[in-house]
Amino acid sequence: MRTISWSEAGGGSIHLLDQTKLPLSVEELVITRPAELVTAIQRLCIRGAPALGVAGALGVALILKNSEREGWSTALIEREIFALRNARPTAVNLAWGVSEVEPLISKGSNEVLQRALEIAAKDAVSCREMGRLGADFLVEILGNRKLRILTHCNTGALATTEWGTALGVVQELHSRGLIEEVLADETRPLLQGSRLTAWELQKAGIPYRILPDGAAASALFSGLIDAVLIGADRIARNGDSANKIGSLGVAVSANQVGVPFLVIAPESTVDRSIATGNEIEIEFRGDDEVTQIAGVQTAPFGSRTYNPAFDVTPARYIKAVVTDEKVYEVSSGVSL
Questions:
Q1: Looking at residue 254, which CATH number applies to its domain?
Q2: Got the DSSP string for 9-32?
Q3: Residue 226: active-site member
Q4: What is the reported pLDDT for 186?
Q5: Torsion sign (Cα): 200, 128, 40, 214
Q6: pLDDT tens per residue across span 100-123
Q7: At the N or C end, where does the chain have fewer CB atoms within 10 A?
Q8: Which domain holds residue 298?
Q9: pLDDT at 10
């Protein structure tokens, strides 16, 4: 089952692998209405920058399919597109995917759908290229040897259409016989590392261990890690990168012990309209994500939380940003 795909059945629908059910159950969501897609995005049934870009493009096609069947007004179409574009404000790829197909709206749903499917196909190719470039760069700076990699959140096929970004680099290294072990941060509060990354690593036959987020610094200072690989949801022109909350702490620790910290993301995640990470809007999420685990209350009822979904890692802590086009050594002052 692919992370996201289109079906012509029933007049057009988007099929999603429901990531909230993993790893215990593999279930598919069939999305026929735009509001259902927005809810699925906000519930993190689909997540990851490249996958959200495809969701944005396919979502516009879905809006137009509904409009053509039901005779929607231009104002309603615009409202639905606005809701889709802004479903998750930090993730630039969602808005990017919408923008990529907007010029074709006047030509109808089929033209928009064709462009959206092209974006999906290109994502698969770009992920393979990021894997190659990232693996080559690590071999260049660390030598042709087996590596121990630390990851944070999920950056594999589940975050893209296939293969992955940071985990795509791991896959490429593994195919070359250059992975000793992956240490996957559990990634609180929603456990994308333990639920999703570990699931993907197990399916790929890559040796791994899961560690609590609070153990990442200890692992780095103990010499257990050769490199850290993460993804990104938005990257500023100077290389400052927004990623899942907890990334910044890992970056600071890696910097202290001289372990290279790499951000792997497609060029579409680079937002050159902003100069630094200070301009990135950070999404905050509900208290229940912190006070409950799988619906079980783990904190006093009524507890308030501080629950940002992302943090911004300054470029000075990032050895390089690897995209599908090139490697930017941003800690050396290179701009994207």
A1: 3.40.50.10470
A2: GGG-EEEEE-TTSTTT---EEEE-
A3: no
A4: 98
A5: positive
A6: 999 999 999 999 999 999 999 999
A7: N
A8: 131-332
A9: 80
* Same domain flag for 36 and 101: yes
Considering the candidates 185, 226, 233, 271, report the single residue annotated as catalytic. Answer: 233
CA 82-16-113 angle, to 5 degrees, is: 55
Q: d(Cα 113, Cα 60) in Å, to the nearest integer?
A: 8
Instruction: Give the number of C-alpha atoms closer than 13 A to the C-alpha of residue 84, restricted to the C-beta side.
Output: 33
- The total number of structural domains that make up the chain: 2
Confidence (pLDDT) at 159: 97
Partners of residue 182 on adjacent β-strands: 149, 208
List of the chain residues with pLDDT < 50: none
For the chain, how far is it from start to end, CA to CA, in angstroms?
35
Of 284, 282, 269, the closest CA to residue 236 belongs to: 269
Say what the pLDDT of residue 77 is: 98
Residue 21 belongs to domain with CATH number? 1.20.120.420
144 and 85 housed in the same domain: no
pLDDT at position 9 is 84
**What does the alpha-carbon distance between residue 155 and residue 264 come to, in Å, rounded to a whole number?**
9
Q: Are residues 23 and 58 in the same domain?
A: yes
The label of the residue with tokens 């057009």 reads 12
State both tokens at 136: 């080559």
pLDDT of 150 reads 98
Residues 106 and 157 in one domain: no
- Same-domain status, 17 and 117: yes
Q: What pLDDT score was predicted for residue 236?
A: 98
